[in-house]
Amino acid sequence: MSSTPASSSSASAQRSAAAGASKKGAPKSGARRPAQARSGQARPGAAKRPAGKRPVNAKRPTGSRRQLVRPAPRSKIRRARLVVQKVDTWSVAKLIFLLSIALGIVTVVASVILWLFLQASGAFTGVNQLISSLGTGSTTVDISQMISLGQVALVTTIFAVVNTVVFTLLGMIAAILYNLAAKLVGGVTLTLSDES
Question: What pTM did the predictor assign?
């Protein structure tokens, strides 16, 4: 009969421990609800803003850093080294021939203009007087008749034609000599680059 009060006291102690554990696990009636439960309710001071518009007084986050804009890298200057190993003789001959013709035309026109300028300025008359004063004979000399405009144009034209032929032949010979020299020691080196 002595074991009955001990068993009853142990059972009451177990009941009191279980009641205390249930009180600790249960939430208090005055505790705040989690934020997820209140997500459907709007704050009293918050106003709805239209989509796509930013509020005027909105502050940027202080923790974000501005991204520095890096300058564009400078483009490197491209350079190319080329070697002229061979020159076409026929192309050189054609080029020099055309340049010689242009030079001959300029020479003829310049000589005609010079003759007309001397005639208009009276240079021929002064030369005639100088020659007649130095001479002992009574014959008069007319330089404008001895060196007429036609004779000047004819002589200058012949001179221009001869120069054209000579320059063309010299250009062809120079191209042939350059090709022979380029085979022996190499051609002329050219360095090409972009504009700075």
Answer: 0.53
